[in-house]
Amino acid sequence: MISSFLSTIFSLAVISVLFFLIHSIGKKLIKRSFAGARAKSSTVSRGRLETIYTLSQNIFHYCILFFYLYAVLSIFGVPVSTLLASAGIVSVALGLGAQGLVSDVVTGFFILLEQQYSVGDDVKIGTIEGTVSAIGLRTTQIIGYDGTLHFIPNRSITIVSNMSRNDMRVLVDIRLDPSKDVNEMKKIIADANEELVPTLEDLTKMPQILGTVDLGSGDLVLRVVAYAKNGAQYAISRTLRDRYLDDLKEHGFNIPTSPLSLTK
After folding, report:
1. Is the separation of the CB atoms in 50 and 115 below 8 Å?
2. How far from the centroid of its chain's Cα atoms is residue 52's Cα?
3. Rounded to whole angstroms, how far apart are CA atoms 121 and 222?
4. CA diameter of the chain
5. Across-strand partners of 9?
6. Dihedral (Cα; 104, 107, 108, 112), 10-degree rounding
7. Is the pLDDT of residue 263 over 60?
8. Which parts pass through the membrane (predicted)?
9. Contact residues for 67 (Cβ-Cβ < 8 A; gap 6+)
10. What is the pLDDT of residue 44?
11. Count of alpha carbons within 13 Å of 170, Cβ hemisphere only?
């Protein structure tokens, strides 16, 4: 019994070390291969390469884990092949969640095939908004704008809003000064645009003054719309708004901080 026990422990140690080395070497080879691909590729986006890289790492990890468990069970004398071929075990596995696992993998495959999003994209999935940090066989990892890391099962992803594929809208609303002429306000903003736009490199479409917009309950604003590269819309929106408010203040405009009421 002691001899058999020591033999089993020795076999487990050898198998564990062997699979650890295979796992480490394999991950390093994958990392080195994709490092070369990043340096040479000019047709595939960096986000796409990062997505394939993380997926390859996941597939390799799960394959090694499967064969390691197979080897460990074999050392203990468990007839793994017989168990896998047994219809009863398959039924139990399906009942314990294999259906969900298959659904995760299939959904993840179509997400990659259709290129719905890549690592580094800003997306909205359900109620979660953030940046895609990893795409795995089972889950997609999203880092929220507050720093929270979300793990989303692929099967629960039904609607994806990708905010990194097209230019994003920059919307600036400035409240009206009821004692001033709206046309004068438009002219001041137009002059500010002529001076400011050449300094905004991420702006892709010139700001357009749409005119007066009623936001409801008598809340009137002068709306300006522009377009910027994805990710830069918030900074440009703040820059435009600050410049508009400063110029209007210099010309004697008193911009209200509360909605205007037309009933008073």
Report:
1. no
2. 15
3. 32
4. 98
5. none
6. 180
7. no
8. 6-25, 59-78, 84-113
9. 19
10. 55
11. 28
CATH code of 168-250, in short, is 3.30.70.100
- What is the phi-psi region of residue 47: left when phi exceeds 0, alpha when psi lies from -120 to 50, beta otherwise? alpha
Cβ-contact 178, 127 below 8 angstroms: no
Query: According to the model, what pLDDT value does residue 38 have?
Result: 65
Q: What amino acid occupies position 110? A: F
Burial code of 67-88, b = ≥16 C-beta within 10 A, e = fewer?
ebeebbeebeeeeeeeeeeeee
Reply yes or no on whether the pLDDT at 54 is more than 90. Answer: no
Q: What is the DSSP letter of 155?
A: G
SS3 108: helix
Confidence of residue 143 (pLDDT cuts 50, 70, 90): very high
3-state secondary structure of 179: coil
Taking a C-beta distance cutoff of 8 angstroms, is the pair 253, 177 a contact?
yes
Residue pair 130/150 in contact (Cβ under 8 Å)? The answer is yes
pLDDT digits (tens, 9 = 90+) for 88-118: 555 555 555 556 767 777 787 778 777 788 8
H/E run at residue 156: none
Question: How high is the pLDDT of residue 95?
Answer: 56
The predicted-structure confidence for 184-230, as pLDDT tens digits, reads as follows: 999 999 999 998 888 888 888 889 998 888 877 767 888 999 998 88
Measured distance CA(150)–CA(132) in Å, rounded: 10
